[in-house]
């Protein structure tokens, strides 16, 4: 079985080359060919000694997950579906904007965290992606986008930002994530600045500290609720790492973060977390953490059990935060027509969730509100 070179960051590739009796500079050359030039064919790596090319042909390969589909939305959003075997597929979304091109990358097939409003969480967990499958999404997207956009975008970097916000919780796939992040930052590979690579977490507190040590990139935290009682229901990992611990972890992360703020993501669910009182409670929660807030209109999916907040609720919620001095944005919904919007990354992963309907989520939420004397 040939070794997949996409599994190695620079350090790993140098070590593997050393095992083959090759010098470190050869590893750098190959790294540049594979990631900078997007080349997967060793015979075309023209400045590499012929003897090494022949050796690589026998022992190694550049094997990204095969592309199952490539769909373009009316708004320019592009969604790729990659086959990671055994009936599992993961999604990668490219979002072009005036001043940047962002690639949203998946870290797992499915997700174990079962956030109540999330289409991926509904499917249950299948497996962690390998480093090759994570970085392979960027490698493939660069090639696919380069092919179709080369005519009008020649010379420009099409993907300027990467967000680990696709399917899965990146920080529960830590060991495979870190080499992929290092490749994104490596000048011999993709050369992105730390500020342009974002890891999004639901709040795996010990892994946030490990990320700060191993590879501090920009951090987004999926908050979605202003208090533990509601967050326990919407983001069940909160029962293990409650908000006080999470806020303390954010403060620690900020000491090494490449940006001087944490981005908090907050999905707006009608009647659940979108009231003015929720906004005020949220303000109290985050007041000591330098942050930006990103409000995300919920993207409904079949049997979700939730509704998108009315536009007026979102506007009023944002207004309260902005008046208090918090930079607040409301995410534009992109790629609705190809199910590429946030929380719709369902793919075609085999459903291993024990949950079959939204009932189990909605009923506890309702009973919680009833216990609290809140009518929705
Ligand atoms: S929101 Fe993120 S962490 Fe939560 S279930 Fe979905 S993919 Fe997993």
Characterization of this structure:
Helix content is 37%, strand content 19%. A hairpin with a 2-residue loop joins strand 4 and strand 5 (88-96). The N and C termini lie far apart (58 Å). The strands form three sheets. It has a ten-stranded mixed sheet with strand order 3-4-5-6-9-10-11-12-13-14. With 376 residues, the protein is an alpha/beta fold. It is elongated and about 70 Å long. Bound molecules: iron/sulfur cluster. Iron/sulfur cluster is lined by residues 111, 113-115, 118, 120-121, 167-169, 202, 222.
Give me the number of helical elements: 12
Query: Which distinct ligands sit in these coordinates?
Result: iron/sulfur cluster
Our measurement of the CA-to-CA distance between the termini, rounded to an integer number of angstroms, reads: 58 Å
Instruction: Please tally the β strands and state the result.
Output: 14
Query: What is the CATH superfamily of the largest domain?
Result: Aldolase class I
